[in-house]
Amino acid sequence: MRKPIKPIAPKPSQYGIDPSLVKTRVAEMPGMVSLLLKDLFPDLPDVIFPAGDDALQNVRKAAEDALMKVDMSMIKPEHSVNVLCSHHGFTLLGGEPYAELLKAIRDVVIERTGTKNIRLRAGVGMRFRETEEYIKRYGLDVYYEGKAIGLAPVDEGVAIETEIGTLYGLKKIYDADWIIHAHHTDVREVHFHRQVDKAVKPFAMSYARIETRSTYHQNLGPRAANFTARAIFESEYVQNKFAFAAFLNVGPHGVVGVDVDNDLYALNDRATFVGCQYYGKIMTLLGEVDECIAVLDFPCPGPYVFAAGVIYANFLGANTDLYDLEKNPLPSYTWYTEAFYAKNGKPILGDIPEINPAIKMCVHNYAWLGYPSAFFSEHIPTVVVGQEQADLFDTDPLNMQYMDHAVTVKTAEAAMNFAYKTTGTDKVIIFDGAMAGLNVSESLAKLLIEKAPAISKKVDEELLPKWFKQRGVDISILEKLQKSNK
Length: 486
What we know:
By secondary structure, the chain is α/β, with parallel strands linked by helices. 33% of the residues lie in helices and 21% in strands. It has helices at 37-40, 55-67, 96-113, 130-137, 140-143, 190-193, 210-213, 226-234, 236-239, 264-286, 312-315, 374-379, 387-394, 412-423, 442-471, 475-485; strands at 32-36, 80-86, 117-123, 148-151, 157-162, 165-170, 178-184, 242-251, 254-261, 292-301, 306-307, 310-311, 359-368, 382-385, 406-409, 428-431, 437-441. Helix 2 (55-67) packs parallel to helix 3 (96-113) and helix 10 runs antiparallel to helix 15 (442-471).
């Protein structure tokens, strides 16, 4: 156990309260400690970020080294290039590593191809102006010489003919001679995609019009809709523009490298290993938590706040194995979507798992609006800190009922005291983005330390072989990946 790791700082945004209103971070309160993930699981690879004062330079060098090896011969000096990115990358580890990758891509493409007509296209989901904030925050508007824009799924579309019919992308995503897919291996919504085609998913999400993007949420459900991303990517229209993909290689404890390839499916296989091997142990370990108070304390919407590289939405499903495709066969189970719950608040089918019963209360100290979250406060007793934050959620069309199921207290200290007394537990997990580790209460730290060795053995010997077999990924690739990391 160590002193708490500094949480990710509050950030100014139209989707959250003013950072000056965040008076106390829960990690700073008495009884909180941190656990480094490398202490829990020593076999995790070394990281290049966070890694001291030169960490961003480490990311830059890794990006440049990888980009120098990929084939860019298709890009000529007179050609235009769109670098495609997604909003979630900017909430990883403070956002700077992803922004550095995007800057490095521009520099190396100019150096190697001679073209200077390079534009940044940043896709987003429900918070239509979010990427505009990131572009300015990380200076990408200046770095791309005014050629950086945020795109929302309601922007002008383009019809893409695929083997399953006409689907719709965003016109400005594809308005260049070539596209570069800049993404990351962070597992993020593994409760949705189950680490199946994760690297391809943005083609039907961040880069798609709402008519196509909605297949993930309103029509087929996230796993069933995965084939739409493949259909778009494999279309003649997209293949004629696709140059290569450049991914920030991320584990739950930080950036482990940069992976670049002209073959997106080969990169997708490697991303599957990263998602299962690096994240599988911490996600399985979190399933051992018997009871806790979950604290939201991070600058992004509630479901996407981080602890140990895992988002809160995943923790809601930690009572089951989110990677197991046989145990959870139905393609659209998401564990926190009201579509699977009846008006009585219970799952509509008997085999739909209920929300993780270990979560006894949620303390909403700091998290943004912009994602429909009333389902969370309805099913988990929720305490919101500060009237300003409660009022903000009341103004959000996606969260008009969030506060109907929550209570408001003035301070974080009052919220935690209320949670301790009401739940009877002193085990606390804080989703505050602490890099390289996680901030928890001392009592929960002891439990995680005790359980970690057995979980590590179980994942290595039992779960990993099963997860990889279910996804049809060659286990020999893992050995090559491990050697390259060394």
